[in-house]
Structure to design on (251 residues):
C-alpha cells in the first residue's frame, strides 16, 4: 500500500514489516496470519469485504481490487493511513499527515483528476481506447471531445465507447443524450474504427492499450462539472486490465 505525506509530498510504501514495528513486540508468536488478523480485525475492526480489501492492499492484489468498489477501497485505505498517522512521523518533515495514495500497480484518482485522465487518455492511446460510462451527454461530447476523437481515429486507433441507451436516461437527460449520440454516430460513419456499444450498464472506466485501466465511479461521457465526490483506481496490473476490458465488452 502507498501513502503520501500531505505536508511535504514524501511517498511511503506501507509494508507489513513497518506495521509490525508500529504495533510493537509480543506478536512474533502469532505468525503471519495471526498478527494481520489482530491488526485488521482486532485494532481496526475490519471484517468481511473490508478485511479482504485490507489484505489485498498489502498483497498488491490489483486483480482482486479491480473487482471491488473504489469508494470502499478508499475508505479502507483512509482508515489504514489513519492508524499510520497515530504511530509514524514523516522522515522528511516530521509531520504525521499521511494520505492513502494507492497500492502496487495502482493509483487513486479523485474529483477533477478524472477530467485530466480523460484528456491524458487521448494523448496516451496508440492502438486502442475504451471509454465506458453509465450515461452519455453532449455536455461532454462537445466539439473539443469530438476533435480529440477525430485526431485518434485518423491515426487508426481503435476506439470503443460504451454507454447506456436512451431508455436509461431520465427525461431531463434525453436531449443531451440525443445530441451527443448523433455527433458520435456521424463520426462512426466516417471512421469505421469508432465503435459505439449501447447496453444497459453502470460500468465506468477507461482502458488505454495495455498500458493501464481506470475503474471507478465517474461517468466519463456525461459528467462535465464534477460536482460530487468521485473516486477511481488506476490499474497497471496486466491481468486486471484484461479482466476489466473483457467485462466492458460482455453483453
Amino acid at each position: 500500500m502507498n501513502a503520501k505525506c500531505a505536508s511535504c509530498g514524501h511517498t511511503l510504501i506501507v509494508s507489513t514489516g513497518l506495521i509490525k514495528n508500529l504495533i510493537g513486540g509480543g506478536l512474533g508468536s502469532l505468525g503471519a496470519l495471526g498478527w494481520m488478523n489482530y491488526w485488521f480485525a482486532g485494532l481496526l475492526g475490519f471484517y468481511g469485504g473490508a478485511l479482504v480489501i485490507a489484505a489485498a492492499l498489502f498483497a498488491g492484489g490489483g486483480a482482486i481490487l479491480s473487482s471491488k468498489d473504489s469508494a470502499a477501497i478508499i475508505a479502507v485505505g483512509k482508515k489504514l493511513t489513519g492508524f499510520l498517522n497515530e504511530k509514524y512521523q514523516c522522515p522528511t518533515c516530521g509531520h504525521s499527515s499521511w494520505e492513502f495514495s494507492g497500492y502496487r500497480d495502482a493509483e487513486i484518482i479523485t474529483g477533477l483528476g478524472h477530467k485530466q485522465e480523460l484528456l491524458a487518455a487521448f494523448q496516451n492511446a496508440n492502438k486502442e481506447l475504451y471509454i465506458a460510462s453509465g450515461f452519455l451527454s453532449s455536455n461532454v461530447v462537445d466539439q473539443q471531445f469530438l476533435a480529440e476523437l477525430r485526431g485518434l481515429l485518423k491515426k487508426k486507433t481503435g476506439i470503443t465507447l460504451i454507454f447506456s441507451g436512451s431508455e436509461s436516461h431520465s427525461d431531463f437527460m434525453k436531449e443531451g443524450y440525443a445530441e451527443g449520440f448523433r455527433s458520435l454516430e456521424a463520426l462512426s460513419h466516417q471512421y469505421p474504427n469508432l465503435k459505439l456499444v449501447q447496453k444497459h450498464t453502470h460500468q465506468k472506466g477507461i482502458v488505454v492499450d495495455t498500458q493501464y485501466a481506470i475503474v471507478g465511479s465517474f461517468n466519463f461521457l456525461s459528467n462535465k462539472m464534477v460536482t460530487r465526490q468521485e473516486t477511481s483506481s488506476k490499474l497497471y496490473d496486466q491481468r486486471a486490465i484484461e479482466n476489466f476490458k473483457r467485462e466492458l465488452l460482455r453483453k
User: Anything to note?
Assistant: The CA atoms of residues 35 and 200 lie 44 Å apart. Residues 2-104 form one domain. Residues 26-33 have pLDDT under 50 and may be disordered. The radius of gyration is 21 Å.
